[in-house]
Write a structure and sequence with these properties.
Elements: H1 4-16, H2 22-30, E1 46-55, E2 58-67, E3 74-78, H3 86-97, E4 101-105, H4 129-133, H5 137-152, E5 163-168, H6 171-181, E6 186-192, H7 205-209, E7 215-221, H8 222-227, H9 231-241, E8 246-251, H10 268-285
Parallel strand pairs: 3-4, 3-5, 5-6, 6-7, 7-8
Antiparallel strand pairs: 1-2, 2-4
Length: 287
């Protein structure tokens, strides 16, 4: 799903709507500036820090934010192909203000510390493909184990509650694999405009997720659904057969990449809907 043609098509559609101009995109995104997210009602005070985490392959850089007092369920966030950047720190902080201990990771730490996209979400996708292609099921699952083990060593993480994980674009299938890597610990999985959730291989991300006991939220971009109209049906049938609670929805009018606030196709209305569904998922599965 992370190909330049689709991002360019989506940007043109968004500009045609009159919501934002190409020049505005250049000013906002070229500087790595995200649109401001709505404030959290009754937000809790949080503590935030840049952290490093040892993995079997080296030292990963990440952003950790959690309620300033007490313990809270842990959440592992996998960014899209543009990586760990201000918009994902903003999203992580917002989730922490809602009552979660949140770790947002740099999945490309083996090659480069964040920021890994020099122009933020305005970075040409082809220049980032080598970073994404260097990752595979093995690296993703070993990373998932290391990151969740790190979360469980933090005093702010509730050990008596399940962990959640969420992924955007390429992070969607990684979130599925995270649940498979630590099936006894992960209680909730969310994918937002995830690319590559379903394939014909026996280790397809959706089949791995179906072997867990996690509850799922799968938010699909409308134009992704147009390109792969049967994927939602495969997901629904697979999780129904596995008897896993799964909310699977195509978000009307939302283009691939609509959730991060610095996205070239950010759709605040649909992003807020997806955010509300995420909180509902975590409210049930991580309580």
């Amino acid at each position: 799903m992370c190909d330049q043609d689709h991002f360019d098509e989506d940007k043109k559609e968004f500009e045609a709507s009159g919501l934002v101009t190409r020049r505005q995109f250049g000013v906002l995104l070229g500087a790595g500036v995200a649109m401001m997210l709505p404030k959290v009602v009754n937000a809790v005070a949080v503590t935030e820090s840049e952290v490093t985490i040892m993995t079997p392959d080296g030292t990963a850089d990440a952003y950790f934010v959690h309620p300033a007092t007490g313990t809270a369920p842990g959440v592992l966030v996998w960014p899209d192909i543009f990586g760990l950047r201000p918009s994902f720190r903003q999203m992580g902080k917002r989730l922490a203000e809602s009552g979660y201990s949140v770790l947002v990771v740099n999945p490309f730490y083996r090659v480069k510390k964040a920021p890994t996209a020099d122009q933020g979400s305005a970075t040409p996708v082809p220049s980032l493909m080598p970073l994404a292609q260097a990752l595979n099921e093995t690296t993703q699952m070993t990373d998932a184990k290391a990151f969740i083990a790190w979360l469980d060593r933090q005093a702010s993480v509730a050990k008596n509650k399940k962990v959640g994980t969420q992924g955007y674009c390429m992070g969607g299938p990684i979130a599925f694999r995270t649940a498979a890597a630590v099936p006894g610990r992960v209680g909730a999985v969310a994918s937002f405009h995830g690319g590559g959730l379903v394939n014909d291989m026996p280790n397809s991300p959706h089949l791995l997720a179906a072997k867990t006991k996690a509850q799922l939220l799968i938010a699909i971009a409308a134009n992704d659904d147009m390109r792969s109209p049967n994927e939602k049906n495969v997901l629904k049938e697979t999780f129904e057969k596995a008897k896993l609670p799964a909310e699977i929805e195509v978000y009307t009018g939302a283009a691939h990449g609509w959730c991060p606030p610095d996205s070239q196709v950010y759709n605040e209305l649909q992003a807020e809907k997806a955010w509300a569904r995420l909180l509902a998922l975590y409210g049930k599965a991580l309580a």
